[in-house]
Amino acid sequence: MLDWALLPFKRYFDFQGRSRRMEYWSFALLIFVIYIVLVGIMMAGGMSLAALSGDPAAAAAMEMGPLFYVGAGLLALFALAIIIPSIAVVVRRLHDRDMSGWWYLGFIVASMIPFVGFIASIALLVLMFLPGTVGPNRFGPDPKDPGSTEVFA
Questions:
Q1: Four-point Cα dihedral 84, 94, 131, 33, nearest 10
Q2: Contact (Cβ atoms closer than 8 angstroms) between residue 21 and residue 131
Q3: pTM for the structure as a whole
Q4: DSSP label at residue 15
Q5: Which residues of 47-76 are buried (b: 16+ CB within 10 A; e: fewer)?
Q6: Which sign, positive or negative, has the C-alpha torsion 86, 91, 95, 98?
Q7: pLDDT digit string, tens, across residues 69-96
């Protein structure tokens, strides 16, 4: 499963071809776990959830140590590092559904509209759960085909 989670980093700037659900969801799980670890480092450095609630007394009492700033820096660097592979894996996942990658831009624009954004986000989530088209499509061979040598290329 780790191979699938790291595959978007190997295909860092590759917007061609198709990606399986396994690749997308393994990558999403890896990103989630890394975020949890980095936020844990920040909390060990002095960040508290009570201060984030908007209570001025809790925010004033919060004293952040150097570990907080290390965690925040790592979090910022990691967020910048995963922008391109995150977009690329979603585009390839849409290709697996035989949809153009430009649909992703449409979902992003639609998500900026207050009520429509919620519906668009749910629709994109549903598309990520649906299986890809069986057999080759206009974006490439089927990544589930065991005879294909291009799956981990």
A1: 20
A2: yes
A3: 0.83
A4: -
A5: beeebeeeeeeeeeeeeeeeebeebbeebe
A6: positive
A7: 888 899 999 999 999 999 999 999 999 9
Phi-psi region of 54 (alpha: psi -120 to 50; beta: other; left: phi over 0): left
Rounded to an integer, what distance in angstroms lies between the CA atom of residue 2 and that of residue 28? Answer: 12
Check residue 132 and report its DSSP letter. Answer: P
pLDDT tens-digit series, residues 98-152: 999 999 999 999 999 999 999 999 999 999 999 988 888 899 888 887 666 555 5
Residue 21, token pair as written in the block: 């659900």
Predicted local confidence at residue 129, as pLDDT: 94
Distance from the first to the final alpha carbon of the chain: 16
Residue 44 tokens, joined: 């060990």
> Cβ atoms within 10 A of the Cβ of 123, count?
14
**Of 87, 42, 93, which is closest to residue 65 (Cα–Cα)?**
42
Could you tell me which of 68, 56, 2, 67 has the C-alpha nearest to residue 29?
2
